[in-house]
Predict the 3D structure of the following.
Amino acid sequence: MSNLDSSLPDATAAAEKLRVGFLGLGIMGSPMAENLVKSGYDVTVWNRTKSKCDPLINLGAKYQPSPQKVAASCDVTFAMLADPESALDVAVGENGAVSGLSPGKGYVDVSTVDAATSNLVSARIKDTGALFLEAPVSGSKKPAEDGQLIFLTAGDKALYERVAPLLDIMGKSKFYLGEVGNGAAMKLVVNMIMGSMMASFSEGLLLSEKVGLDPSILVQVVSQGAISAPMYSLKGPSMIQSLYPTAFPLKHQQKDLRLALGLAESVSQPTPIAAAANEVYKVAKSHGLGDQDFSAVIESLKSKMQQHS
Ligand SMILES: NC(=O)C1=CN([C@@H]2O[C@H](COP(=O)(O)OP(=O)(O)OC[C@H]3O[C@@H](n4cnc5c(N)ncnc54)[C@H](OP(=O)(O)O)[C@@H]3O)[C@@H](O)[C@H]2O)C=CC1
Ligand SMILES: O=CCCC(=O)O
């Protein structure tokens, strides 16, 4: 097929020259928006803390002072916000995106939220005549920087097709999962597994050390067997040194476990492992580790912290 084939998504988007809004420039939103700017898109940004917009503005992004004004000045607006409360506030609160939307526009929420929040945002967006897509992501800070995220999308198929070239810039793959809520649910199930894996890995590192083994050799052994995971090889060495440089904040992992437990409860699915893991993250959060990487959960299993909890 020729590169000039206008049926290709890339060619369609280039021909359309979409104006892209981006709300929420935290650990994930900043590199995602940066990749769009670097790919030549006309990007307009907003963030609650305005200073985080400056590096993007220096790269050529435009700025608007509210989600409403971003949505009004763009064809499609992405939102990458901390949690259900902020996702709702930015979409439907005062000067929220909804008041800037109209038929022909689209809103793509890439935050990790629960299905109920996503459905609420979707209903309000659709009331304006605009289209809605939920598209939470798997992959952390580095994959966001490298354009290697995995999008778990659901909602308006027409919007999915329209933004596919943008998702392809920010990510390495994308799944379309049907009705709004399915993307949120898939993301929560994935992060429920991840949270339990990290808590279990933490126990193993500490146990190996207590029985006189070298935990760095445990990391090597794990990396070569059936339970190997990139996460263990990536985070294990720094965890052994009690270093937790933030890629995925612990407070967000605990939020995802909380939301996943709610999802499980809604269908009476027992999730005792995730429930136990959630308690360990809650202890870590209550000890002020919420802004550190989620691998800092190991701290809550160290005996000195157990005595103080
Ligand atoms: N970090 C990661 O590895 C991954 C994170 N996620 C998910 O992506 C989302 C964002 O994560 P991440 O970028 O790491 O988080 P950050 O904490 O770095 O960024 C959160 C963003 O939300 C904004 N925000 C928070 N509260 C409000 C509010 N009340 N009103 C308006 N804006 C608000 C922050 O604004 P301000 O700058 O003003 O604080 C910031 O832009 C979360 O849902 C997270 O679970 C998904 C995959 C990976
Ligand atoms: O939500 C955060 C996910 C982090 C990851 O997938 O590595």
